[in-house]
Amino acid sequence: MTHIATIFDPFRPLPTAERSRQLDAYLAFLRERDGEPDMQARTLSERERFFDALDQAPHRSSIEIDANAFADGLAGAAVTDRRLVWLLAAAKANRGERYGVDLVLDKGDPPTLPHDVFVPLEEVYHTRILLDACAIFGLEFTFEPPPARTRRLIALMERSPEWMRLPVILCGEVTGAALFQLLLDELDLFKDDPEAVARLRMLLESILVDELGHVAYCRARIGRTGLRAARALLPTVASGIVTDIPEVAQLAGGADRFIERVKGFEVAHDIGVQATAFRPD
Ligand SMILES: [Fe+2]
Ligand SMILES: [Fe+2]
């Protein structure tokens, strides 16, 4: 498989006709990728099949990870072991998104667009995927909400009008995508166990494809002015996420390096094409 790097610009304004074409194509893509949504049960039929297949072929790595140090790291203690840093970044990666999605799902408002049935449910699966990733090393954790400051920000956003909310959400999706790309780029940490690497790659790529879809979906919903605002907001949102998950900065070689990655946002071409089947830039 050849990976040709391409830069997908999440803030490039699109002509109106192209925006609605992408929204239609994305909905078709979601229906095919996710299957039937069940809002009550919070499931997607194709994702259930994905997990059934995973459960049938579990992998327990021989790589030893200190479960106590992992638990301490989840509680906020600093760690230095790079494998632990990676696993903690993964375990905390979708706390913010998941918290926001739970607020929306619990409120139970009818979705604005049909896509909004699928996108929040995908986030529910991201938690499950990340649990599965940690389980490879015998690590367990329960979903914890993000720190109080971030919770307040997310709750405030939930109550804001869409024109204010969407640019911030776009920044969150872009930062999330860059974070999952970073985790993929650092998989060599586990190279002593090629099977673990393969499984982690498969799990993380499935999240990255979703996240790239969320990025493109958000972009298609925002006009020129909103996208300009989003581009300006990006470093602030990205540094907020680094503050919440210090392991991300550790993994990237510093907060600034991570923010540069977020601003550059390069993704492997083949993943970008999958997620934006409706057209990569
Ligand atoms: Fe996510
Ligand atoms: Fe997302």
String of helices and strands: EHEEHHHHHHHHHHHEH
Mean pLDDT: 90
The backbone outline, from C-alpha atoms, is: globular
Distance between the termini: 20 Å
User: How are the strands ordered across the major sheet?
Assistant: 1-4
How many discrete domains? 1
Bound molecules: fe (ii) ion
Biggest β-sheet description: 2 strands, antiparallel
Q: Give the low-confidence spans.
A: 1-5
Number of strands: 4
Work out the radius of gyration.
18 Å
Report helical residue fraction: 55-70%
| Strand coverage percent | under 5%
Contiguous helical run count: 13
Descriptive overview:
- With 281 residues, this protein is mainly α.
- 40% of the residues are buried.
- It has one domain.
- A two-stranded antiparallel ribbon has the order 1-4.
- β2 and β3 form a beta hairpin.
- One fe (ii) ion (FE2) binds next to α8 and α9.
- The site of one fe (ii) ion (FE2) has 6 residues, from α6.
